[in-house]
Structures are given as structure tokens and as C-alpha cells.
Amino acid sequence: MDRPDLFVLGRLLEALALAEEPPLRTQLQQRAGVNYTMLENYLEFLTGYGLAELNGDGRLLLTAKGVEAYRFLSAGLSRIFGVPDAGAPLRELSRPGPAR
Amino acid sequence: MGAPGPREVPPVSTAPAVEGPIGRVQTQLGGLNEGVRSAARRSRRVSWFAWGFLFAGITGIPVLEVGILLSGLTPSGPNAVTALLIVGGFPAFVLLILTVRELLVGRGEAGRPSARTVGRPGAAAEEPPGFRVSLLTVQESQKQITRIRGELEVSMIPLILGGIGVFEVVGDLVLLPTVGPAAAAISPLAYFFLPYAPLVFVVPFIWYLWRVARQWVDRYQRGLDDQVRQLISLEGEFLGRFASDRGRG
Asked: Do A77 and B248 touch (CB under 8 A)?
């Protein structure tokens, strides 16, 4: 992938960050609103740069770097567009796993 | 959402998409286009009303003159003045009020360019725009606002000309018959200057309208310029920090 789309990355990171439990690929695809090809490309990107990883059940998890990336992007976009960011719940921080 | 506690069994989610800060930003961006389109519509209306005001002012003057000739009225009678002003000046007055209203509403909306569509039913269901599309949307909006600026500035011309005409008529019909005789006792030149005396009100009035129009456009332009600059900077910073080869692995 030449240059990833910031908003697609943001939607994927957000879908992972706000998920009640680590989603499967299809669940992530639905929640982020991306098509299958795009999902595959971006998953390769996310896992390649250590932002997300697949567990043994085929579910996707944000890594600590992924959480940091989501926070950075969420705070940045919220600041630019004046959208409140304070209430953004990051449930994965309380979840045992790679995010910690 | 409270503080993180022990994990509960999550309910089955039926939500098709997450709506965190990034989702909300994208919903808001979807509204930006509509906000700018609304500004363009208002600016077009300002232009029509302003030229209509000039036209109504120009046609109002002959109506007043013909009214005087046909009815044999003299502008000296208070009832005659009222009747003539209503007949001749009403359309221009209404159009001027509409122009001012559009300018004020446009300026008010500029403070919240996307407020009209945030929370609009169905907005979240639309395909959210990508970063490039969003950036293009903002840049396209900048061009639209520049065009609106030009349109509003041109609209000031009929407002000035119409304002001169209307105020001059007011001077003719109101000041001349009422203050004229007394002023002529002081100086015979009063009959020449009195009709033009109300013109001094045109300058501050048009200046006020021009200021409202500038504030309207400036609010949009400042916001959009900042957004474009910050979006480009955020993208570079994000990719450099989280997606550079250094950070791989």
C-alpha cells in the first residue's frame, strides 16, 4: 500500500478500540464500513507496523502501539474538527492482552 | 460509560458501525459540503435581493413621480407622503430587509458550518469519506467560499446605488417639505442640499452590511484554512510516528 488513508485507518483503529470483545475480520469489516479488499490491505498494514495483531482464534487485537496510534489520531481529528474526544472509551486498556 | 471494571458479558452488538470521535468527525465532514452549499444558496439570494432592491428603488422613483402627477397630490401633505412612500418604497424596503436577513443568517451559520447535518437521519448510514476525499471536500469548500466572497462584494454595488436612490427619495419627500422652509430661511442653498442629506446614512449602513458579509466569509475561510493545514500536518505526523519503517515490527 503506497499511502494509507488516514480515515480508513482511523475507522479500523476505532472499531478495534471500541469493540466489546476482539472482533473477527467480518465483524471488523462491518463496524469500520470497509470492503473486503480494503480490509485485507489495511490489516496487512496494521499488523505489519505492529498496530494490531491476530490472536489464535482469528480475532483482532490492538497492540499498545495501536492504542497509542488511535489516541493520537482521535485526539488530532477531534481537535481539528471540534468534536469532543474526552468521552472516548478505550475499553481495550482494561482488557488483558497485547494492549496492556 | 463509567470507569473500567470487571468484564461483563458483552451484549450482541447490532450496530453496523462504531461511532467514536473519528466516526463523528466523518459524519461532520459529510455535513461540511451541505453547509457550504447552503452558504452558496444564501449568497445567491443576497445577490438577487440586492439587485432587486436596486431595481425596486429605480422603479419606485417614477411611481412616486407619476403618483404625484396623476393624483395631483403634493408631497407637502403628511398623508400624501405616507401613501407615496408606501406605494413606491415598499418593495425596495422589503427586499432590503430580506438582504440584511440573509446576510445575518449566513454569518450566523458560518460559525457552525456543519451543524445543519450533524445528527441528520441517515447521515451515519452513508459511506464515510476517506481522508483524501475529505481533504478535497475541504479544499473544494475553500474555492466555493472564495466565489461567495466575490459574489457578496459585487452585491454591495446595487445596495449602495439603491441606498442612494431610496435615501434621496426620502430626502425629497420627507425633509424637503418639512424642514425645507425653515432651512431655506437660513440659507437658500438648503433646497439644494436637503434632498441629499439622508445620504450620510448610506455610508455607515453599507459599511455595516459589508462588515457582516466579510465576517460571514472570513469565519468560513479561517476555519477551512486551519482544517486543511492541520489535516496535512496530522497525516504526516501520524505516518512518521506510527507507519515509518523505523516503527515496523
From this structure: no
Rounded to whole angstroms, the Cα distance separating A87 from A90 reads 9
Q: Could you give the CA distance from residue B49 to residue B61 in angstroms, rounded to a whole number?
A: 18
Given a cut of 90, whether residue B23 has pLDDT beyond it is no
Q: What does the DSSP 8-state code read for residue A53? A: E
In this complex, is the C-beta atom of A24 within 8 Å of any C-beta atom belonging to chain B? no
Minimum CA–CA partner of B226 in chain A: A80
Q: Is B155 helix (H, G, I), strand (E, B) or coil?
A: helix
Q: How confident is the model at residue B58 (pLDDT cuts 50, 70, 90)?
A: confident
What pLDDT, on a 0 to 100 scale, did the predictor assign at position B112? 59
Contact B72/A at CB under 8 A:
no
Can you name the residues that pair with A61 across neighbouring β-strands?
A53
Question: Which residues lie closer than 8 Å to A43 by C-beta, 6 or more apart?
Answer: A12, A25, A52, A60
Can you give the pLDDT at residue B48?
94
Contacts A26 to B, Cβ<8 Å:
none
Report the distance separating Cα B3 and Cα A44, nearest Å.
33
Q: Are the CB atoms for A87 and B32 separated by under 8 Å?
A: no
Give chain B's length: 249
The span from the CA of B121 to the CA of B149, in Å, is 31
* Minimal-distance CA residue of chain A relative to B126: A33
DSSP A23: P
Tell me the three state secondary structure of residue B14.
coil
Q: What's the pLDDT tens digit per position in B135-192?
A: 777 777 888 888 888 988 899 999 888 888 777 777 777 777 777 777 777 877 777 7
Query: How many whole angstroms separate alpha carbon A92 and alpha carbon A20?
Result: 8
If you average pLDDT over residues B73-78, what whole number do you get?
55
ipTM above 0.90, yes or no: no
- Whether pLDDT at B114 is above 60: no
Mean pLDDT of the A18-43 span: 88
Show the cell assigned to B58: 429605480
A1 lies within 8 A of chain B by CB: no
